[in-house]
């Protein structure tokens, strides 16, 4: 699908406020609300817009410790380890990175007791992990939620 300038403006508006009504979007774009609805539906159908979601401030819901992990795995265990970690509710994101079978993972927990439990009882319990390196987030300067156009 080739995106035109109106599609790009529409995506930017929805990225800034995913709850904008079709009427408000139409006013911003100079189109009818029917035309905007059709464009949004086409963007969803084509997979440009994957979903609409809510961004939750993790600290406001009690997840005050944010940690990042580099997890080196046995090559044959990488996918199974990644799939198991992806199912863990403490794991906010998990990516395969370049390098020797490395996963990059972001974990959100209530406190250091929960982080220690996650590391010792859940992470180290997985078969196929060779090495784990962790980094605790001290301060966030920018956080990304999907692609910004």
UniProtKB/TrEMBL annotation:
Record's Pfam families?
A: AsnC_trans_reg, HTH_24
Enumerate the GO terms in the molecular function aspect: DNA binding
Q: Which UniProt keywords apply?
A: DNA-binding, Transcription, Transcription regulation
The residues covered by the HTH asnC-type domain are 3-64
The cross-references to InterPro entries, in alphabetical order and at most eight, read: ArsR-like_HTH, AsnC-type_HTH_dom, Dimeric_a/b-barrel, Tscrpt_reg_AsnC-like, Tscrpt_reg_AsnC/Lrp_C, Tscrpt_reg_HTH_AsnC-type_CS, WH-like_DNA-bd_sf, WH_DNA-bd_sf
Which SUPFAM superfamilies does the entry mention? Answer: Dimeric alpha+beta barrel, Winged helix' DNA-binding domain
Any keyword Nucleus? no
Q: Does the keyword Methyltransferase apply?
A: no
Q: Which CDD domains match?
A: HTH_ARSR
List the coiled-coil residues.
none
Q: Which parts of the chain span the membrane according to its record?
A: none
Q: What is this protein called?
A: DNA-binding Lrp family transcriptional regulator
> What organism is this sequence from?
Caldalkalibacillus horti
């Amino acid at each position: 699908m080739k995106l035109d300038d109106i599609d790009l403006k529409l995506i930017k508006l929805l990225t800034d406020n995913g709850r904008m009504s079709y009427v408000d979007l139409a006013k911003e774009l100079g189109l009818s609300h029917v035309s905007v609805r059709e464009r949004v539906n086409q963007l969803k159908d084509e997979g440009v817009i994957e979903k609409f979601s809510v961004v939750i401030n993790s600290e406001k819901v009690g997840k005050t410790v944010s940690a990042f992990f580099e997890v080196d795995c046995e090559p044959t265990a990488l996918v199974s380890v990644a799939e198991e970690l992806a199912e863990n509710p403490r794991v906010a994101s998990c990516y395969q990175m370049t390098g020797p079978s490395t996963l990059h993972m972001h974990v959100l927990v209530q406190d250091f007791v929960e982080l220690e439990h996650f590391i010792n009882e859940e992470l180290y319990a997985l078969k196929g992990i060779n090495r784990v390196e962790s980094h605790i987030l001290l301060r966030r300067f920018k956080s990304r939620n999907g692609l910004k156009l």
